[in-house]
Amino acid sequence: MLTLDKLSAGCKGVVVRLDLPEEARRRMAAFGLVPGCIFNLTRIAPLGGPMVLQVGTTRFLLRRSLARSVEVEGGA
Question: Is-above-0.85 flag for pTM?
Answer without folding.
Answer: yes
